[in-house]
Amino acid sequence: MYKVLTIRDRIRVPPDKLGSRVKSSIKESIKHKFEGMVFNNTLILAFMELKDIGEGIIIPGDGAVYYDSTFTVLAYEPRLNEVVEGKVSEVTEFGAFIEIGPIDGLSHLSQVMDDYVSYSKSGTLSGKKTKKTLSVNDKVRARIIAISLKATKGAKIGLTMRQAGLGKLEWLEKEKAKKAKQSKVKKK
Question: Which residue of 1, 33, 43, 141 has the smallest Cβ count within 10 Å?
């Protein structure tokens, strides 16, 4: 889920940035400190707007100026059971990595489809009975089943595509067309 957060923090403007305009120096410091930061399972993506700047404080021995500032950022917070759409960015022996906006999630081999899945060296996952295939750049719909966002270890998002209404979008369209066709046959 994307959201806009309002943050109030004391922003450090280093001495080498004091000669330029204060507002632009504070914006630059906010971007440097916050973009890409993870806290409370929320990933901060981008600085948006500087709302308020307080008086600067100089701490002896530091040389920098600290400004109490209020600003907004764009953030992404993945939620358990959230349904997401994305694009397959990599296929490996153990599953498929899927770009779901700002981060990648992993759909383990066992969570790709309701079939025995095998990996081919050409970078494709294939179902034994269904003959369904999954490759790089395929668009998919998945559900988030595990979340671990750590500032030091990076993001780990677990995905499943084995539930109804999930999987490669092409598979879902074929299934929808098949059901519509069966429905017409039953009506006659």
Answer: 1
**CA dihedral (131, 134, 137, 143) positive or negative:** positive
Residue-wise pLDDT for 157-181, tens only, equals: 999 999 999 999 999 998 888 888 8
Helix (H, G, I), strand (E, B) or coil at 181: helix
7-55 confidence digits (pLDDT tens): 999 999 998 887 768 899 999 999 999 998 888 788 899 999 999 999 9
> What pLDDT is recorded for position 20?
67
Rounded to a whole number of angstroms, the CA Rg of the chain reads: 23
Contact 25, 32 (CB under 8 A): no
d(CA 43, CA 36): 6
Q: Residue 129: pLDDT above 90? A: yes
Structural domains of the chain in order of their starting residue, each with its CATH number: 2-76 (3.30.1490.120), 83-171 (2.40.50.140)
SS3 103: coil
Spell out where 23-136 has E strands.
38-39, 42-58, 65-76, 83-92, 95-99, 104-108, 117-120, 124-127, 133-135
